Amino acid sequence: MKNQQKTKQYIRNQKGHRVGVMVAREKDNHFAIGFSLCATKKGDKFDPQLGEDIALKRAYLVLDEGKEHVVPKSIESQVIDFTEKSFRYFNDNKELVNDNIKLLHKFN
């Protein structure tokens, strides 16, 4: 496996508490974003390591299988900012796989 890079950023709620994590993972001149968001309204507590593991798995699903995932409206702007930072981190010479971030509203 070639040298792979990653970068991460925590997702914060309005009070500034960490409630999730985003990871950008590089592979073969492409990169993908994965994220994990804790269900704090249901009483869950954010675990940074578990969140990163989930986010990495989702990024790999995009890179390896072309999967797409829906970004909740509540973190849309943070994901857009992170994607832009990731382009710079990977020196602007990588392509975002499959435009894998679908900025759709999630309806319950």
The count of helical stretches stands at: 2
Mean pLDDT: 80
Span between N and C termini?
Answer: 40 Å
| C-alpha Rg (nearest Å) | 13 Å
Q: What share of the residues lie within helices?
A: 25-40%
Report the sheet with the most strands, covering strand number, pairing sense and barrel closure: 4 strands, mixed
**What is the ordering of alpha helices and beta strands?**
EEEHEHEE
Strand content: 25-35%
Strand numbers in spatial order across the main sheet: 1-2-3-5
Structural class: alpha/beta
Low-pLDDT runs of 5+ residues are 98-108
Based on DSSP secondary structure assignment, what is the total number of beta strands? 6
The rough form would be described as: globular
Task: Give the arrangement of secondary structure elements.
Blueprint (H helix, E strand, L loop, with lengths): L5 E7 L5 E10 L2 E8 L10 H18 L3 E2 L5 H14 L5 E2 L4 E2 L6
Parallel strand pairs: 3-5, 4-6
Antiparallel strand pairs: 1-2, 2-3
Tell me what you see in this structure.
This protein is of the alpha/beta class and 108 residues long. The protein has helices spanning 48-65, 76-89; strands at 6-12, 18-27, 30-37, 69-70, 95-96, 101-102. The strands form 2 sheets. Strands 1-2-3-5 form a 4-stranded mixed sheet. Strands 4-6 form a two-stranded parallel sheet. The radius of gyration is 13 Å and the shape is globular.
